User: What shape does this take?
Amino acid sequence: MDEKKILTVTVDGTAHTYSRRTPYRAIAADFQNRSLYDILLVNRDGKLCELHKALDRDCSLKMITAQDKPGFQTYERSALLLMLKAFYDVVGREQVEHICVEYSLSSALFILARGSFTLDQALLDRVEARMRELSAAAIPIEKQSLSTEDAVELFQRCGMPHKAQLLSFRINSHVNVYSLDGFVDYFYGYMVPDTSYIRCFGLELFENGFVLRLPTQKDPSHLGEFHPSKKVFDALYESTLRSQALNASNVAELNTTISQGGSTPLILAHEAMMEKKIGDIAAEIVSRKEVRFIMIAGPSSSGKTTFSHRLSTQLRACGLHPHAIATDNYFKNRAETPRDENGDYDFESLDAMDVGQFNQDMVRLLAGETVELPTFNFKKGAREYNGNYLTLRDGDVLVIEGIHCLNDQFTHSLPKDSKYRIYISCLTTLNIDDHNRIPTTDARLLRRIERDARTRGFCAQATIKMWPSVRRGEETHIFPFQDSADVIFNSALIYETALLKPYVQPLLFGVPRDSEEYIEAKRLLKFLNYFLPIPADNVPKTSLMREFIGGGCYHD
Assistant: This one.
């Protein structure tokens, strides 16, 4: 092969020439002055490539920074590798029992560390100082391919049994591992070429562990604010304990359970835990005699509809009479709907709701009056009245679901004591292994891909394309109000990704290779490869997962 052959590289519509085998890092350096932030990867004709790789064909390149989702994930992953290396350097490998990355929390990763050391801020300061030494030294992060057998043996020797267990389920004959100055680890995804790219980070004690603080995708050059929700953290921690009780703290343990024929007991045990939690919420509502309005909100694909049905069942069992109200029926008529900065209808804005009419109706119901409730005709874009009358009597409660249900501006006329507010979200605590977490947004996206395909005829590409817009709406209208909830309900199920795999996998394979959504589809496909599948046969018809895969017993 002619190493001196000249190849054409197109960047931003302009052709440039480089010799074959020119590292992408060298090409990225030529365009760094066009970007405010470090180029961390390149997108070569729809395929992500690490910067240590070399040019081998004519191509178009797009520079990827931490403002792009793949770039931000690469930065987070690389910062974690740097932290692990520094922690072991400072404490000593023989003193560390395990370091486990649990979940993301307010622009940070929450981490538990156990071993023969005292975890305090002084220790974390020493680890952070070591991280900065390593960053300043620009030490290469090297990637190498090992046979799966050799990798399993390596991680068993290194005291990382969950990684060894995880890789034992891999069909591939080889796996890629990363090393940093002698520290070797396995990561799901790409890395920066050396430690000099990792400059924005911080370590702080938090609860019974610590956090690795990181920048935000919006501003990769500064640490994001750290204002964690105590209620969300408590819900996550409770779920972690639940996973441990079911021997399914990570994918390796889950796969072991599935491979040994234990999926059905696992499904039924977790469903029973969830039902008990719903029953406890119902019992608390019953104990608050003044509650007449049960307000339920949460981000997309959290399972709000099925949760509302199951809560209503529990309320009936406690002697109450629940009535469902969808806030969507209080949309303003289409002509009055506000538009966003792009000129599109902004249905997620509070201004899209007829807040005045909603409050007027609810106050009248609370006063014992009979009220005709509206129905919104989405085809006509107008509210209609079709004789749906309601009177609240003794023991009657309203179960109200909607995006703004935790926002006091939406229910400003209702007495505080008359409302019981529930925030529901899919807060997965199941991780791939100790150092590779599963973002909660991935679990919700997989749910939505399947439900959109089954109920709306949407392809996976369409769902992936609209997902960033959905996430922006959640950041504005839902997440800021989560701490106002009386209770946080975690709708994540340990077994759900294994269940969704055979449903979602074919849909993701249908995303065109030349589309912008292909990179995300490919990432999700790689993620699903870690899981052994679970059939839906023994998933109860009342399960929250039936909202997404079908076959449930609840009908609107």
In short: The domain at 71-228 is CATH 3.30.980.10 (Threonyl-tRNA Synthetase; Chain A, domain 2). The CA atoms of residues 136 and 196 lie 6 Å apart. The mean pLDDT is 94.
